[in-house]
Specification:
This is C-CAP/cofactor C-like domain-containing protein. 22% of the residues lie in helices and 26% in strands. It is built from 8 helices and 18 strands. A hairpin with a 2-residue loop joins β2 (110-112) and β3. The termini are far apart.
């Protein structure tokens, strides 16, 4: 486990939309965790697990929140550079390309807004060619290039009667049913699964972003997610997914069968979870994973077993840390799961 990844995530948890609005109104700096229901320490058992309680509205974030996030990154870029260079007492003088690439957990660069580069350092030609760069020059270069990707993370909040700008699939309130998405070669920009109970859901198409919220006693089988898949405020859910990045927040007694490029992120009041390797079999899996840039590679075969844990129950020692957080890892949970070609009853699309 690279402790620098934990440091980056802990800084991310400082951000709160409510606190950002208060700071804008009072023109005051803030750097503390927001209290109340928006805190990652809020327990899933403490309130209703409905999608409306997560502070999301439509498909967009809104201009004010976007501006606050942009300012948050600029404000804390120096702290992130200190973390990746392990220069915690003083500002670093030089940042290497390998150290800067660690910030790929929260930043992304690309030749266009829809074609990201594999390494973050490739977005800065001077850094990529010399393998290192003065920290002050690096901060200036990032500050000039830093912008919000409106093509991927839309700013406009969807209004009633208007179609979302992207291909969005919203699935909610499936109760004691089986839901099967077809065709397999569809492209989904945003997949939102919320408030489903005692059900089984299959979505084996290519997906860019996936958010699973407020579900209970539900099995969710996904194909390839090219950017990030988040499970939030769920209980007794089993998720099977191949995702570039996977995040679990405020979940209890939940299992995740993963293939991922980045270590899974476990945060908030998350307890009693199980992690295991991705185990889904279906006839179109190879083409779906290839289209999502998630082709199975030996280099990433065990990334699922090394999560970044920033949970409320973190322990001080490494030997008992997993038991304190309630994280179980092991191949004994790796049983093949075969996705059907179609479902002839109890729902579908």
């Amino acid at each position: 486990m690279d402790i620098r990844l934990i440091g980056i995530m802990l800084i991310c948890q400082i951000f709160s939309s409510t606190r950002a609005k208060e700071a804008q109104a009072k023109s005051e700096a803030w750097n503390e965790r927001a209290p109340g229901s928006l805190s990652p320490r809020s327990s899933p058992r403490g309130g209703a697990k409905t999608s409306s309680s997560h502070g999301t509205s439509g498909t967009g974030r809104g201009a004010e929140l976007t501006q606050a996030l942009h300012g948050f990154v600029k404000q804390h870029l120096g702290a992130w550079l200190q973390i990746v260079s392990l220069s915690l007492q003083t500002d670093p003088s030089v940042i290497t390309s390998e150290e800067f690439d660690i910030l790929g957990l929260v930043l992304c660069g690309g030749t266009s807004k829809t074609q990201p580069l594999w390494k973050l350092s490739d977005a800065l030609p001077d850094l990529a060619s010399k393998s290192s760069m003065a920290a002050a020059d690096l901060r200036k270069a990032v500050g000039k290039l830093l912008s919000w990707n409106e093509d991927i993370y839309t700013i406009d909040v969807a209004k009633d009667g208007l179609e979302p700008r992207a291909k969005t699939l919203n699935l909610s309130n499936v109760l004691k049913g089986i839901w099967f998405h077809r065709p397999h070669n569809a492209e989904i920009e945003y997949l939102n699964i919320s408030d489903c109970k005692d059900s089984t859901i299959y979505v084996t198409a290519r997906i860019r972003f996936c958010l699973i919220t407020g579900c209970e006693n539900t099995t969710i089988i996904l194909g390839g997610v090219s950017t990030i898949c988040t499970t939030h405020n769920c209980e007794k859910v089993s998720i099977h997914v191949a995702a570039h990045c996977y995040k679990m927040e405020n979940c209890i007694d939940t299992s995740a069968f993963l293939y991922c490029h980045l270590p899974p992120i476990i945060t908030g009041d998350t307890r009693g979870i199980k992690l295991a390797p991705y185990n889904v079999l279906h006839s179109h899996m190879a083409s779906v994973l290839h289209g999502s840039q998630m082709t199975l590679d030996r280099e990433f075969v065990d990334i699922w077993a090394h999560p970044i844990c920033c949970t409320a129950g973190m322990a001080g020692g490494d030997s008992d840390a997993d038991h304190a957080r309630g994280v179980v890892r092991g191949a004994k949970y790796h049983l093949p799961f075969r996705a059907p070609q179609q479902v002839l009853s109890r729902g579908g699309a």
